[in-house]
Design goal:
The complex is a heterodimer of chains A (334) and B (300).
Chain A (H helix, E strand, L loop, with lengths): L1 E2 L5 E10 L9 E10 L4 H12 L18 E4 L2 E4 L5 H7 L3 E6 L5 E3 L2 E2 L2 H9 L20 H8 L15 H5 L5 H12 L7 H8 L14 H5 L6 H14 L7 H16 L4 H9 L8 H9 L21 H11 L5
Parallel strand pairs in A: 2-6
Antiparallel strand pairs in A: 1-2, 2-3, 4-5, 4-6, 7-8
Helix pairs in contact in A: 3-6, 6-7, 6-9, 10-11, 10-13
Chain B lengths: L5 E5 L9 H14 L2 E4 L10 H5 L1 H18 L2 E4 L2 H16 L1 H12 L11 E3 H16 L9 E4 L3 H4 L2 H4 L13 H8 L3 E2 L18 H17 L4 E4 L2 H9 L1 H8 L7 E3 H8 L4 H4 L10 H8 L1
Parallel strand pairs in B: 1-2, 1-3, 3-4, 5-6, 5-7, 7-8
Helix pairs in contact in B: 1-13, 3-4, 3-5, 4-5, 6-9, 10-12
Classes of the chains: A alpha+beta (334), B alpha/beta (300).
Chain lengths: 334, 300
């Protein structure tokens, strides 16, 4: 690594993931050395690998304006929209060593190009369009107030680049999970006043195993989105809407959420043992017996905690304030 | 430091129940460093993102009430749990940037004689130690260097993401390349382990409803640490700690590997290096045996 005299360019080596699903058994990483200028984008570096080093290097690109979503890759594990990202910034962050990989290495087809079919299938599954009876001969446009429009303004900016989807660890562990991009789309159309399929979409996103309850709350999606949409914020809103609109059914996940109010009302604190019993039900507790014994041995919990007439829970000071606030502020019910 | 540091401590629920060692080691570290702590005994649960899923407005009201008590003392509120940090900071951000929401919340708080003003900062103890107390000052107080240990820092999501929310209270930590815990380990003369999963999710929040996902995420992180020669793992979050320590056996079964990795709370690690007592550090409260670390540290 050397800074040139002007300080305007830097000589760096880029390691790029190389793989051709048709001919290769395993991927490899190849190194390319080049002088990088201060205004160059990651997309410029992808172009230069192809144009100056190896014409067979493959990647998707189209608009160069951060609007088509084609050029999303990962640089040192960071979701990156290549045409929006200044290269120098990442060279500074990663000590002048850049590693280019496709958004999802296990879905690689050729080099940076991946098979995004799972992304599109999940996107399609949430009915990502306005469902409405349209008057074929309307006399005026559908009217929407600015406040109504603002509800979905940012979620509508999604360019389907897949940066959040392929940064989501829940999706990597559970292939049924819809993921942040599809859930953001579900939110976008559910809050649209022209739409009539809100309940249907909320039911789709309420399913155990695939819906919002499988989000692990890691905020990787919020960090990854190049359009600053904050998908997990929309996921939280979908959670709330399931209760508001009576779609939530009583299950381990919904009781876990609602059970917090029950605990806080009694103690101010969350009762860690009670929330497990309340969410799982007494019959579901068999799964937790081994852990409970281990925790009791370590002194983390005490055997008498489980007795209904024993209250070992610490209480906060001024608990009655919290009880009053719950009484006057709670709007949702399970 | 010319003036004594003084914080309002928001303990969260876990430190008052299943991880008493977190509270005792935090107080011991503060004591050793001459940091004054006032515990917010009035503070209730932050909602841990689950109350937020059920009733977001109620969660804002309760978190705003907690912050009110720090404001009354005129102190910065410190947290010792990443999830408490996230949810308190989210309420602060929401109220400070939305006057209409702030007014609605204050209307409720007025019923119990409180008012949220937005005058207290909220930061995790990790960043209070690094940014306010200073790594060099901590280094000077080390009596038991941790040089015998390869320590894998596990950052926990809610201190580093979303970076836009935390930027002003976590020293601008980059979530793709966090450094604070690594430098703290360095200052205590331990050997920080570099591994890919240090900034990844432990899976705690879906422990009940998506158990397999939860176990896989925790397992991926732990075996990555072990494969990079970690002797122990350290985390600033008691929820990560519960997942990694309490469920280590079942995680190992799901992932198909025997894991034996003691997991320390961040303040326990500092307490160990500052020469706090065995009782204060509380390694006996761990499910994965960790008491030997105290003797090993002293021996070295």
């Amino acid at each position: 690594m050397s800074e040139t005299k002007t300080g305007q360019t830097r000589k760096v080596t880029i390691k790029a993931f190389r793989f051709n699903a048709e001919t290769d058994y395993l991927p490899s990483y190849k190194s390319y050395t080049m002088e990088v200028g201060k205004d160059e984008l990651i997309l410029d570096l992808l172009n230069r690998i192809k144009w100056e080093h190896d014409g067979s290097f493959s990647y998707r690109r189209s608009c160069r304006h951060g609007i088509c979503g084609a050029c999303a890759i990962k640089v040192n594990g960071k979701a990156t929209l290549a045409c929006k990202q200044n290269a120098m910034e990442l060279l500074d962050l990663f000590n002048n060593e850049l590693v280019f990989e496709p958004s999802s290495t296990k879905r690689a087809v050729k080099d940076m190009i991946i098979d995004k079919s799972d992304f599109w299938e999940k996107h399609a599954a949430v009915k990502p369009y306005v469902v409405a009876d349209i008057d074929p001969h309307p006399e005026h446009e559908t009217k929407q107030s600015i406040a109504e429009f603002n509800k979905f303004l940012d979620s509508d900016l999604c360019i389907q680049c897949g940066a959040c989807h392929y940064s989501c660890p829940a999706l990597e562990a559970n292939e049924d999970y819809l993921g942040p991009a599809a859930l953001n789309a579900a939110y976008r159309f559910t809050v649209d006043t022209r739409d009539t399929a809100a309940k249907e979409r909320l039911e789709i996103t309420a399913q155990s195993g695939s819906g919002v309850w499988d989000c692990v709350k890691c905020y990787e999606c919020a960090e990854a989105c190049p359009k600053e949409i904050n998908p997990i914020e929309k996921i939280t809103k979908l959670h709330n809407m399931q209760f508001e609109q009576g779609v939530a059914v009583s299950n381990v996940a919904t009781r876990h959420a609602e059970g917090f109010v029950r605990s806080i009302k009694k103690h101010g604190f969350l009762d860690e043992a009670d929330i497990v019993v309340y969410s799982e039900g007494y019959l579901g507790m068999y799964k937790h017996i081994k852990t409970a014994i281990k925790m009791a041995r370590a002194g983390k919990i005490h055997w008498e905690d489980g007795l209904p007439w024993v209250d070992n829970m610490p209480k906060i000071k001024n608990l009655e304030e919290v009880q009053k606030l719950i009484e006057i502020s709670q709007t949702n019910k399970l | 430091m010319s003036e004594q540091l003084h914080y309002a401590l928001y303990t969260g629920c876990t430190a008052k129940q299943s991880t008493p060692e977190l509270l005792s080691s935090t107080l011991a570290v503060a004591d050793k460093l001459g940091i004054k702590i006032t515990i917010l005994e009035e503070a209730s649960c932050c909602g841990a993102s689950h109350l937020q899923d059920f009733d977001e407005f109620l969660a804002h009201v309760l978190n705003a009430r907690n912050i009110c008590y720090a404001e009354k003392l005129g102190l910065t509120m410190i947290t010792i749990c990443n999830t408490c940090q996230l949810n308190s900071a989210m309420t602060k951000h929401a109220l400070d940037s939305d006057p209409e929401l702030k007014a609605r919340v204050n209307e409720k708080l007025a019923e119990v004689g409180l008012e949220y003003k937005g005058t207290s900062e909220i930061k995790h103890f990790l960043y209070a130690l690094i940014d306010d107390y200073g790594l060099d000052n901590i280094k000077n107080k080390v009596t038991t260097p941790l040089s015998a240990f390869n320590i894998a820092p596990f950052y926990g999501c809610h201190n580093i993401r979303p970076s836009e929310l935390h930027g002003s209270s976590n020293g601008g930590e980059n979530p793709y390349k966090p450094t604070s815990l690594d430098s703290l380990i360095d200052a205590l003369e331990g050997n920080p382990v570099d591994y890919d999963h240090k900034n990844k999710c432990c899976g705690f929040h879906v422990e009940l409803q998506a158990n397999h996902t939860s176990e896989v995420l925790a397992g991926n992180a732990m075996i990555d640490a072990v494969d990079n020669n970690a002797d122990l793992m350290v985390t600033p979050c008691p929820l990560c700690h519960l997942k990694m320590d309490t469920y280590q056996d079942s995680v190992g079964k799901v992932i198909g590997r025997d894991i034996e990795l003691p997991v320390l709370h961040m303040p326990q690690m500092v307490a160990l290096a500052l020469g706090c007592t065995e009782k204060e550090i509380g390694l006996n409260f761990h499910v994965q045996k960790a008491t030997q670390i105290f003797t090993e540290a002293k021996r070295a």
